[in-house]
Write a structure and sequence with these properties.
The N and C termini lie far apart (about 45 Å). The chain contains six helices and no strands. It is an all-alpha fold. The chain has one domain.
Length: about 140
């Protein structure tokens, strides 16, 4: 189920990890991985909304500046903004794809792998210690 939480976020966005998180609350491993996938999708959605707000703000600003009696000029801001926004959306999509596949594989292997920034937040929400669930190597034998 932890593997599915990571993999299904590519198809089901935030809904699939949320469902898995809610139905598998007893398993600390599954709920940890599902919560990380859910947090990633929340961050993804916030970034998409921010990019869309930038897009609409730019379009409306250009339209309202062109309402004078003179013929409209092609705004040079669009030559810069459209490729940058497209690259932003593609980078976000590729990043989410890579993270979802990588951590689905790690969850399938039984690893307690933390997302770079969201893993600590997920551990805090679930009230887990920084080493809970991780395999801690035994101390080295004493040297004589």
């Amino acid at each position: 189920m932890a593997t599915l939480a990571h993999a299904l976020q590519l198809i089901g966005s935030w809904i699939a990890p949320l469902i898995i998180f809610l139905i598998r609350r007893r398993s600390r491993f599954v709920s940890f991985h599902a919560l990380q996938a859910l947090l990633l999708q929340i961050v993804h959605t916030i970034i998409v909304f921010a990019l869309m707000m930038l897009w609409f703000t730019t379009i409306f600003t250009i339209v309202f500046r062109q309402t004078g009696g003179k013929p409209p000029e092609f705004p040079p801001a669009l030559l810069i903004l459209v490729p940058l926004l497209w690259l932003g959306f593609m980078a976000l999509w590729v990043g989410t794809l890579i993270i979802a596949i990588l951590y689905a594989i790690k969850a399938g292997r039984g690893e307690w792998a933390d997302y770079p920034a969201l893993g600590k937040l997920a551990r805090k929400i679930l009230k887990m210690g920084p080493t809970e669930g991780r395999i801690v190597p035994p101390p080295p034998p004493p040297q004589m």
